[in-house]
């Protein structure tokens, strides 16, 4: 270990203090495959964080890797701005045929720049442009990104403080079950809308995550989402589902909102859309909302063609049929059963769990416990991270492609970490 | 051509109206190498736009390609969040040894997310956090990005209108020579600063491009930049140089501000930093400004390790000595001579030119001429684009690696396009 | 009547469309005394609107009139900027001796300019300056004024739209009983405060009316106000009570919050503080909050000395003992009894009533009914106006000095107007 | 003096630190008449500050006093909200007949609340509502008021800091001669407007004072004002002249812009409009701009009828013919001659002067000198104050009604104060 620490020095001396994950996992990683990361000293870690949801198919999945290497080797266009390329066409056709059409969606596809926050910025800009209103409603503990527009609809006070300017035009409403079921859903929100004296400027849109990952793995019920969709329709607000972390199959279906049977006006996708961890993002919207002028929103890396190649390969490999969805739900049950057992054994620590598909959170009454569990898990070879406003939740985002025995191994390690931090 | 048009249909039917470059260059591109792009019908185009400055070393440069393929083949970490990896370490060490140290810079390196606008957002957030002031001064015809914070310091009215909310906290000042030399440099800016009754809220920072690419290839003189740096120092404002388009050797030196002998407090880099057109961005700042809390700014794709690999290879290949800088300046003279000839021949059309290194603009009195020149050039097999607030400038950003005869070929095509649009 | 209409023409031709009360009461008024207004044709009206609360002691009360005439006749200073004058001193001493000290208040007195909105602007500026935070929480259906700062904490959408810019830094919370008792008081507000991920920027202050006059005569319970005061204390937010309409005895005690036993950090007064309908306003705050620099907030008419003279006379005449308070409560019972009878008789119209002291509202299920009642009352010689976000409430603000038989007369007219609009 | 100081104690103990003029003139004033103020100890002061321009006809002018006393004695309506009253009608008719019509103005009259900042807020709201744009251009060293909207177009950094929130939507441009004639008028402003890439959001309006009183008695030339009016017309921006301090005859004509021959779209008046120092304000605008909805902007003290009475009397007494204008210009020459002599005698102190009509400023190279002059003048029985961003200008605003010998007396005192502070 001493050797590694010596070798990390350039990170300490040159990289900004803003770095974070490297502090909890103080190793220098070198190789990655499937569910595993290997550091330069040969230690192997089971990765149940999966790039914060960017690696739903694990690290370097072979089929995608092959497609990527082939494309690079034959000098396919790498950087394509927003030019038409064969790689982009293949992606668009495949996305249309395997994702949009089977789900009855006729949304237009925008390449807003290759990160989630770009996709959110584009969604917010478009909603405001269409509705000619400034206000956007977000939810308690929402996370939508770090650029100024996205940050203004993000809940976390620590992140918000980084803006250096007051964050305006965003209004938070209570997420599902935020007030412990003591208040009827949308009672407050709808009352504000119907009362011309409420002080709420009429919103252009509502932006929501179906499961709040960064916010603590808070799961919205399908009926809550349906009621929200109805509210948006009745009050002429666009419904934006930010599916950056929970889309691409994380909760079972390709989109996390499918289970609720709703059709958002605007959808943001990023993280796992390229399937290989390459930067890529999409903003989807109903055709009638496509009021952009050519080039009104742009960006240098909108056309990251290697990502289009792996994205196409990922759709072909995992979304040509319902296999991935079924498998994810089955694996989710495996995780749930294990968490249920941990929670029962640690009932005195106020342990609980929540989640959907393969996004799970393990909660404790003691706020510091989650961090200790993650730290111990790391020592035991498992990568998991905390989330929630007080970092009080251990968040599990294993690759959807994890085999049952890999899940089993990780969950056993987690149980041990919980035991040993009691 | 009919075939191609039929095949582009998915772009028309599915992709958002926001797409732009594909409209001026209506082909489906497939392969790329060096200065050339090839469409799926086998037509080859000389690319003097180079990914809007993201491809300074041309398309798919072989040395970088080899490094990238090797890394991917051996399952190096692809997606690394902000974990320490061997690829990141190699990049940091190389960047330190070949870029920072030789130039006497001790700046810290932040990975703010892999796009230019992320780098700018991080720079603005940091400046405001450090100085506890909101206002940031930018310049007429500045371009800094499309997310809300960056857009507020961008000049273009068309882009600004896309925000859907009033853009605040940014104040424009005249760029060098904006008022045709009729006003002493910084007369207005300094008067506003020194007058406690001027109405200018004290700025946290000034953000500037040394050459405004999108704004029309407007070149700031070295003495203007030095005066600006002095002004920032005297008035306790941070100087942010946005070197996203003009850095990485575009004007000769690695950083575009080297020629002026100034040291910015904050520097943004993106576009050509990965060298291969892969998304990557950096925000650099003086060590004393590194007041970030861990994770206060984050992003999923901060750790695009394939980009670190090609970035390292690019530094090794092009910046181990002063060869690239010298070659760029020589090539620049070649371009300048050609433009001078064009301008002299089209004096009656009010033709003029300006630029530095290998960033050049060809201007006309008639605003529509530039667009016609670009359209004709495309028909003749040359990719160039317009820039400037009225799209009145033909912008040339050939790869720095273009051979003299490739430059010659492109410049001849350009001259012909100018002739044929007279 | 024809004559009058002809003579109003300058109002139609020259005065802006923004005029409002003159539309509901289309007469040209000439004389006023006590509860009565007389138009130029000799018609006399009973005034139960009392200058929207600015005439708590009726029109031109003789004792105040005498003091005012004396002062003007002997050439006392009329316009005093914020210079020390004998009239100002007399007011300050009397206000201290009759208002502040007997109530155990040690608040500092600021003359912020002679209108309510000035007083609110000063309160908001001070709160933000003290706490170095921007956000101020207001309540649904709040009314605090028409200048930009006050408007941003006002609920009415119609008024807000007049701003022409997005109104920011204000966040609405539910006023007492806003959600019909279905939600625990402050459940939502406190949850937002305690959750670091809620998205609520920490407020500098809370601004509240104990009874919302413009908002529809919504009465906050004493225990709700006490809970609010506790919340402010616990979360380090200043409590601003806007007592512009409900202060100066309107609800019984001099300050409307006395009944609840709370001590606001900041208090705004205007309307009836001069007692004679002359423009005057005060912003009061705890001594520790007096962080203003000399002249940091100013205004030409801060020193409206004739108003100081009548204000002093009013305090001497009405607030030297508890007589006014007791009388107001007694008169309030008289009004309440009459409204109760009206409501019982018009139960089928969904009639209801609410109020405190001598501020009362008569409500109907049918939103248009209130306007019809006011119109008919005017024809019958009674001035009353609607309030509430949909103008659905008939608002009664009779002079506190109305004699029982005057009240009786007005209430009988009101009852008749209700009957005749059924 | 000791006695007085003891007696000022309630000001020290109870009044907020924000008080200002009373600090420079530490007496308790009791009586006022014409150009004179008398303190409670019988000392008489010559007042060349005249309520910061609110007392153009001096203190308590007898004709107005008589009209006011009559009105009050016969129980005319005192507080009239925005009801039609005979007093309001008389004012409107007189204002139309003596002010608007003779000057060819057909502006509508709005009563926005009785203070200058209310009038400015109303003007800004209307301009933004009409043009559907947020930005308003103001000028360096402008002063328009202390409420949030007006403060955002005010230059003084000290006042601005009091807002406690960032001031947005205002953009400062250089006032006439701001850059010492080294820059062509409006070069920068017009360039920003015509360049779609300048970063200036298209303004709804420009707000300007023809002579900046608070800003240091900066006088705009007539040709500069005309050029500004032309610029506004060409670029579809409303021209708002804030004539609160310089209107009502201060510079000669009733409106200060008459000399330049321009017709503003919007005009604000306050200060001396009531003629007696009573709070009153007007916002005037071209009929086509009267897009207000009834009650969209309101305020309790819009109908300060005693002020209407004195305002009418003032118009009758001073503006029935051109006598006041001629007299003011003559008196102005008297002041100018005296200042010229002072300046010549103190050339070595860098003394200078500027002004128009009866608004004058005496400037010194040494910033502290003006304050010392004012302090010494006060000891010698003359009230004058400093203005300008660094309080570097002695500002003279004697009553327009000052007799030649009164002016002579004051100017002699001033000269002595200058001498004795050398």
TrEMBL record, chains A, B, C, D:
Gene3D superfamilies (alphabetical): Aspartate Aminotransferase, domain 1, Type I PLP-dependent aspartate aminotransferase-like (Major domain)
Q: Can you supply a Gene Ontology BP term from the record?
A: ectoine biosynthetic process
Write the record's keywords in alphabetical order, separated by commas.
Aminotransferase, Pyridoxal phosphate, Transferase
Pathway it works in:
Amine and polyamine biosynthesis; ectoine biosynthesis; L-ectoine from L-aspartate 4-semialdehyde: step 1/3
Q: InterPro entries recorded for this chain?
A: Aminotrans_3 (IPR005814), Aminotrans_3_PPA_site (IPR049704), Dat (IPR004637), Ectoine_EctB (IPR012773), PyrdxlP-dep_Trfase (IPR015424), PyrdxlP-dep_Trfase_major (IPR015421), PyrdxlP-dep_Trfase_small (IPR015422)
Entries under Pfam families matching the protein: Aminotran_3
Q: What class of enzyme is it?
A: transferase
Query: What cofactor does its activity depend on?
Result: pyridoxal 5'-phosphate
Q: What PANTHER family does UniProt report for this protein, alphabetically?
A: DIAMINOBUTYRATE--2-OXOGLUTARATE AMINOTRANSFERASE, DIAMINOBUTYRATE--2-OXOGLUTARATE TRANSAMINASE
Q: Which family is it part of?
A: Belongs to the class-III pyridoxal-phosphate-dependent aminotransferase family.
NCBIfam families attached to this UniProt entry: dat, ectoine_ectB, PRK09264.1
Q: Name the chain's protein.
A: Diaminobutyrate--2-oxoglutarate transaminase
Task: Say which species the protein is native to.
Answer: Streptomyces pini
């Amino acid at each position: 270990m001493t050797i590694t620490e010596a070798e990390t020095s350039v990170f300490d001396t040159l990289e900004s203090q803003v770095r974070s994950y490297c502090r909890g996992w103080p190793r220098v990683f070198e190789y990655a495959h499937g569910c595993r990361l290997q550091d330069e000293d040969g230690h192997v870690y089971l990765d149940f964080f999966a790039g914060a949801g960017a690696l739903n198919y694990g690290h370097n999945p072979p089929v995608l890797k092959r497609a990527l290497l082939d494309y690079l080797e034959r000098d396919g266009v790498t950087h394509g701005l927003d030019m038409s390329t064969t790689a982009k066409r293949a992606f668009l056709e495949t996305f249309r045929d395997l994702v949009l059409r089977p789900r009855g969606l006729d949304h237009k596809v925008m390449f807003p720049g290759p990160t989630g926050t770009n996709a959110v910025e584009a969604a917010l800009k478009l909603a405001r442009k269409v509705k000619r209103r400034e206000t956007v409603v977000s939810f308690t503990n929402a996370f939508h990104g770090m650029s100024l527009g996205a940050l203004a609809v993000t809940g976390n006070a620590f992140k918000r403080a980084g803006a250096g300017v007051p964050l305006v035009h965003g209004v938070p409403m209570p997420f599902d079950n935020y007030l412990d079921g003591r208040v009827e859903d949308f009672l407050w929100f709808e009352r504000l809308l119907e009362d011309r004296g409420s002080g709420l400027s009429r919103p252009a849109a509502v932006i929501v995550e179906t499961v709040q990952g960064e916010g603590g793995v808070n799961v919205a019920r399908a009926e809550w989402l349906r009621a929200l969709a109805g509210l948006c329709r009745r009050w002429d607000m666009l419904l934006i589902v930010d599916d950056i972390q929970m889309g691409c199959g994380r909760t079972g279906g390709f989109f996390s909102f499918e289970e609720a049977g709703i059709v958002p006006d605007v959808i943001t996708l990023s993280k796992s859309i390229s399937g290989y961890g390459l930067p890529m993002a999409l903003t989807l919207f109903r055709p009638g909302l496509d009021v952009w002028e050519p080039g009104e929103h742009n960006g240098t890396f909108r056309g990251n063609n290697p990502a289009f190649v792996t994205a196409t390969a990922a759709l072909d490999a995992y979304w040509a049929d319902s296999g991935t969805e079924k498998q994810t739900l089955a694996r989710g049950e495996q995780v749930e059963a294990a968490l249920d057992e941990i929670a029962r054994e640690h009932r005195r620590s106020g342990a609980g769990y929540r989640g959907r598909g393969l996004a799970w959170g393990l909660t404790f009454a003691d706020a510091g416990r989650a961090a200790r569990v993650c730290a111990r898990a790391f020592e035991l070879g498992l990568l998991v991270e905390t989330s929630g406003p007080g970092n009080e939740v251990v968040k599990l985002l294993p690759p959807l492609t994890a085999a049952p025995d890999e899940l089993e191994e990780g969950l056993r390690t987690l149980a041990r970490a919980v035991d040993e931090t009691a």
